């Protein structure tokens, strides 16, 4: 029988199927198993429609049979089968879907979960096979065999295949220097691929496996052939919530996401209506080892009717929730023809929007009801949420602001922004914060003394993103954020302000002498009333604080960032009282010591530590 050519521009399109649409050749097995599941669905549906009540779902199966000697992999199902004309129509025309046609002919067929839509997946077989032979027998029709070696075309002819259903025989390509096709003849590899992609196909996927065992009453071993079911069939997430125990949820999480610890929280979401999907989400206790590396892949596992489509669907999770592990299963997703990627449509966006609201609600519930758990979780992943507030110029700041925790100097524990505002004295108009490298350093910052004296709480910021996040937030419940290092804290009465202005005017000649002595090492020198016990401190300006400068300076090329700080002096400190009587040389020495001390307290490095040490020794 002469070969027939594929319809459409077969050679070009088939080459596209094999080399471009699919990125991982291992998915050929997923596609063929999904087609087999579709065929069984069709047969079962047709039996129900015709009133054939004796049909039992348990009698259906999909079988895998690797043969290393013949270099063949056979996939068999006892589904609806195809006639010779259907083989030619469905397999001779690339991108014609028998499933779509079936749905068109049966208006109620949407009620069953048929996976295939495009009629393309079958051709993934040519990624691993040099020849594909399809034996098929449809009830009431003669059996036929379809065979092709790829782009050159195909043949269809009668055969004596007896069972109702389809048998696909893949003759695998030869192994090359870089490509290894023999792996798809290894039972353990096939079992792994079924587990990865097709574990939740509703029909059993079976394969005969061999194992050795001792003969009874003998030390000799014998080979035993066993029929093994490779898939678990019923996804945990498709069960009713009241049928699933906490231990089962936790065990699934450990198995699926390779974490030895139980999750902090589990979300099982079932949504039906215009958009139907099921989601099973977990909040982990600790980040995975590669969480802060480029190798980390965020996103949820994506299933369509129990068949895994993507292992890391980033579109379903915003970057600020990248710690969430889990999966989404939906029959309503618009997939592209390879079933590997998603069309970016409203359905996907709708699921993503729903999920982020559910995740936020669960975070806030944990914060209210399981505070200790939430604080431990925030310690592990709070940095990600803070970056979410800061990222994209604060586009998500209002959505995330209530998830944040900052350490309270007054309460000596982490608190929310709402808890800070609720505890504010009536006279307090700002939310105050102080930034530093460690909690101990922040608590001892001299700039915080005046604010603490007023009885106001101070949020202690110790991560590089903290101050950037608060600057983006700007305020909370109409209370602006203000650093204890800001030039004007506006804490004084009118009388106190006037008194400070008078002292600054009187000290103006001395301040100019000190500024001259320090030269370009400072931006300015001025008096301050924010200090109580310390002699001096450094402040930036409203656009760039000391801590923000330190963060930016640590970035690539940050060492080139120019920055001069203002040296603020405490006029009530004993050292300040000695300064007016010093000659210029001695005043310069004192000024440089005060600047060095303020620099060290701010957590900045000294330009010349040796000179500082010598100056201290001379004064001693």
Can you put this structure into words, describing what you see?
The chain has 620 residues and is of the alpha+beta class. It contains 19 helices and 22 strands. α8 packs across α13. It starts with 9 loop residues before the first helix and ends with a helix. Residues 95-100, 109-119 and 337-341 have low confidence and may be disordered.
Topology of helices and strands:
Layout lengths: L9 H12 L6 H22 L12 E6 L4 E6 L6 H9 L5 H8 L23 E9 L6 E5 L5 E5 L6 E8 L14 H11 L7 E10 L6 E9 L16 H12 L7 E7 L5 E7 L16 E5 L2 E7 L11 E5 L16 H24 L1 H24 L2 H4 L5 E3 L4 E3 L1 H6 L8 E5 L3 H5 L5 H5 L4 E4 L4 H8 L1 E2 L2 E5 L10 H13 L1 H11 L5 E4 L8 E4 L6 H8 L12 E4 L4 H5 L5 H18 L7 H11 L1
Parallel strand pairs: 1-7, 11-13, 16-17, 16-19, 20-22
Antiparallel strand pairs: 1-2, 2-6, 3-4, 3-6, 4-5, 7-8, 9-10, 10-13, 11-12, 14-15, 14-17, 18-19, 21-22
Helix pairs in contact: 7-8, 8-13, 15-18
Structure, briefly:
The chain is of the alpha+beta class. Helix content is 35%, strand content 20%.
Q: DSSP helix count?
A: 19
Uncertain ranges: 95-100, 109-119, 337-341
Radius of gyration: 36 Å
Distance between the termini: 107 Å
Jot down its keywords.
single chain; six-stranded mixed beta sheet; 620 residues; alpha+beta; eight-stranded mixed beta sheet
């Amino acid at each position: 029988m002469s070969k027939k050519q594929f319809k459409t521009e077969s050679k070009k399109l088939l080459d596209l199927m094999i080399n471009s649409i699919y990125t991982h050749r291992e998915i050929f097995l997923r596609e063929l198993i999904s087609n087999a599941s579709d065929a069984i669905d069709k047969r079962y549906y047709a039996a129900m429609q015709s009133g054939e009540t004796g049909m039992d779902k348990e009698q259906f199966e999909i079988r895998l049979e690797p043969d290393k000697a013949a270099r063949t992999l056979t996939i068999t199902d006892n589904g609806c089968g195809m006639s010779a004309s259907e083989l030619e129509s469905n397999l001779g025309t690339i991108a014609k879907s028998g499933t779509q046609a079936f749905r068109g002919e049966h208006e109620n067929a949407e009620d069953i979960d048929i996976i295939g839509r495009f009629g393309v997946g079958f051709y993934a077989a040519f990624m691993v096979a040099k020849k594909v032979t399809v034996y098929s027998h449809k009830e009431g029709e003669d059996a036929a065999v379809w065979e092709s070696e790829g782009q050159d075309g195909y043949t269809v002819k009668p055969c004596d295949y007896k069972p109702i259903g389809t048998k696909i025989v893949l003759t695998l390509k030869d192994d090359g220097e870089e490509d290894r096709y023999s792996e798809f003849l290894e039972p353990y590899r096939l079992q792994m691929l079924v587990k990865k992609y097709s574990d939740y196909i509703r029909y059993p996927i079976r394969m005969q496996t061999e194992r050795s065992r001792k003969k009874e009453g003998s030390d000799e071993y014998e080979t035993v052939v066993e029929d093994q079911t490779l898939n678990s069939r019923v996804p945990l997430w498709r069960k009713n919530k009241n049928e699933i125990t906490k231990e089962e949820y936790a065990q699934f999480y450990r198995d699926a996401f390779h974490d030895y610890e139980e999750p902090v929280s589990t979300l099982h979401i079932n949504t039906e209506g215009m958009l139907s999907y099921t989601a099973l989400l977990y909040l982990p206790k600790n980040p995975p080892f590669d969480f802060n590396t480029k190798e980390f892949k965020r996103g949820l596992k994506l299933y369509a009717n129990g068949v895994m489509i993507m292992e890391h669907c980033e579109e379903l999770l915003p970057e600020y929730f990248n710690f969430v592990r889990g999966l989404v299963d939906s029959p309503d997703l618009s997939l592209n023809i390879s079933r590997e990627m998603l069309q970016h449509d409203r359905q996907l966006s709708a699921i993503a929007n729903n999920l982020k609201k559910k995740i936020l609600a669960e975070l806030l519930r944990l914060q209210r009801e399981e505070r200790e758990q939430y604080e431990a979780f925030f310690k592990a992943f709070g940095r990600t949420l803070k970056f979410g507030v800061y990222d994209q110029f604060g586009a998500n700041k209002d959505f995330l602001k209530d998830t944040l925790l900052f350490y309270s100097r007054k309460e000596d524990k982490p608190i929310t922004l709402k808890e800070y505002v609720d505890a504010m004295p009536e006279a307090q108009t700002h939310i105050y914060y102080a930034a530093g490298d460690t909690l101990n350093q922040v608590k001892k910052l001299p700039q915080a003394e005046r604010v603490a004296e007023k009885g106001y709480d101070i949020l202690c910021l110790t991560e590089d993103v903290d101050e950037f996040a608060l600057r983006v937030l700007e305020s909370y419940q109409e209370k602006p954020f203000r650093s204890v290092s800001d030039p004007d804290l506006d804490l004084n009465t009118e009388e106190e302000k006037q008194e400070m202005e008078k002292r600054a005017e009187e000290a103006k000649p001395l301040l100019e002498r000190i500024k001259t002595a320090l030269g370009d090492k400072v931006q300015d020198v001025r008096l301050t009333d924010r200090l109580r016990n310390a002699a001096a401190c450094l402040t930036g300006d409203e656009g760039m604080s000391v801590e923000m400068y330190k963060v930016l300076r640590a970035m690539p090329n940050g060492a080139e960032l120019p920055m001069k700080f203002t040296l603020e002096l405490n006029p009530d400190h004993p050292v300040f009282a000695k300064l007016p009587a010093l000659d210029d040389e001695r005043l310069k020495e004192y000024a440089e010591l005060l600047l060095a001390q303020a620099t060290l307290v701010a957590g900045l490095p000294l330009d010349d530590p040796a000179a500082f040490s010598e100056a201290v020794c001379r004064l001693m």
